[in-house]
Amino acid sequence: MRLLLVLRDQLDRSAALFDDVDPDTDVVVMTENDRDRGRFREHKQRLALGFAAMRHFRDELREQGLTVAYETASPPETDRDSYHAAEASPVADALREKIREHGADEVVLTEPGRIGLLKEIEAVCDEEGVEFTVYADRHFLCTHEDFESWADGRKELTLEYFYREQRREYDILLTDEGDPVGGEWNFDSDNRESFGADGPGMIPDGPRFDRDDVTGKVLETVRRDFSSAPGDLDTFRWPVTPEQAKTALDDFIKNRLPMFGTYQDAMWTGRAFLYHSRLSAALNLKLLSPLTAVRAAEEAYHDGHAPIHAVEGFIRQILGWREFVRGVYWLYAPEYGHKNALDAAMDLPDLYWSGETQMRCLSECVGQVKEHAYTHHIPRLMVIGLFGMMAGIDPAQMNDWHEAYYVDAWEWVSQPNMIGMALYADGGIVGTKPYAASGKYISRQSNYCSHCRFDPAASTGDDACPFTTFYWDFLNRHQETFSGNRRMNFQLANVRRKSDDELEAIAEQAEHYRERLDEGEL
Ligand code: SF4
């Protein structure tokens, strides 16, 4: 008999492993104990979303006549500080037990989004002497083979070229002649507005889903058994079924897509969601097909409901960036997770969990993650990640934190985004330059600085903005590293214009701020 192993982020009824499922003999195995895999415990909303979505999926499979062996989550140990990930994944343990219990002779699964887990499962099957079949994950829009052949022989992996191929492959936003609709492939330059002094005003907030018995019980369990996990649970509102995910998509297309492009890089105090879709969590659990989301946005353009720059920006994130980072992950895994091109060694400061800091931007953005297990990509990349890169925080710890604290972060998507894009720890695989910026950038894109005790223009002195101090210190420390990168010429020329005395004062200020960070006083 066969065991069909379904992981927490593989809730896809159209996955290849179900193609020839035999309800009379096959058993689907699911375990909630695939959690807390890294150095840190997961956010309560991450756990609740995963468990609720899994239980709904389990019930759907059972209604369709399949047998599901389902393991609910065991409560964690209570002392967070003594927590360390087990050597072997609980998934491997659960699988071994089920192989023996059912006398299985074959294990079938969809390729996991974590290479280490794939190896563990393979090892268990070898040890137990059972056949092992792994199917490609057909949820994604670019196969490993296609990505490898696209990447083969290229000096640099440039998203833009990959994205154009994807547009052509799926015939998205193309004219009959095969040219890009609107005359350009990319409208990013139209997508950088900030809200100005008046702020964002009213924005339709997105659907809130009724909590049925299944979701209600999960929330109760997480509240009771996972009280030591980080983050808040009260604001939980994630879609937990494919139907809810479709409702969330429809709501976004109708109410927020038209303005999404213009303000996609903007931030505002107390407003975590703004015009963003928040579909990444449902996409990454496979509750929603990427092509459904892409086609819905394209239709909104053709119907005259949303402008090209909004639609193109949204489609690029899903058809381009999401597939691109997955390709990069599998091209470089497992080494990618250990990359540390800038030799960053600082331990993750506590403020990444608590949000308690005098820096208004970080307290606001980390506060959003605490409250919602989510921020949109700019706080993630250009506040939280940016600070980590410039201060010199260990990339592996930053990535573990991201995977634990964000509702949509899984290894395949987290590592290229955090280690690569945000921290430049991959030395330039996903980005051609580090996205270094001073407090002035944050001041332009948000209203955070107007409520902050620091001055975004100051790099030294009592009111020096730590972002601005670390910005100059970062460029100065890495002058040699970046000297061969033409895209860094402008920023490096500005550093070289500073006097030795000025650079020395900045280095001292940065050192002072590192000590304060270490003491939890910044
Ligand atoms: Fe952040 Fe600096 Fe602005 Fe304060 S002044 S909110 S620390 S960027």
General description of the model:
By secondary structure, the chain is mainly α. The protein has three domains: 2-135, HUPs (Rossmann fold, 3-Layer(aba) Sandwich), CATH 3.40.50.620; 144-203 and 256-332, Serine Threonine Protein Phosphatase 5, Tetratricopeptide repeat; 351-518, DNA Cyclobutane Dipyrimidine Photolyase, subunit A, domain 3 (Orthogonal Bundle), CATH 1.10.579.10. The protein has 21 helices and five strands. The protein has helices at 44-63, 90-102, 115-128, 144-151, 159-170, 213-225, 242-255, 257-260, 280-285, 290-302, 308-332, 351-354, 360-372, 377-391, 395-405, 411-422, 439-445, 466-477, 479-482, 489-496, 500-518; strands at residues 2-5, 27-31, 67-71, 106-110, 131-135. The protein has a five-stranded parallel beta sheet, with helices on both faces. It is globular and about 75 Å long. The N and C termini lie far apart (59 Å). Residues 79-86 have low confidence and may be disordered. Residues 359-361, 439, 442-443, 448-449, 452, 454, 456, 465-467 line the site of iron/sulfur cluster.
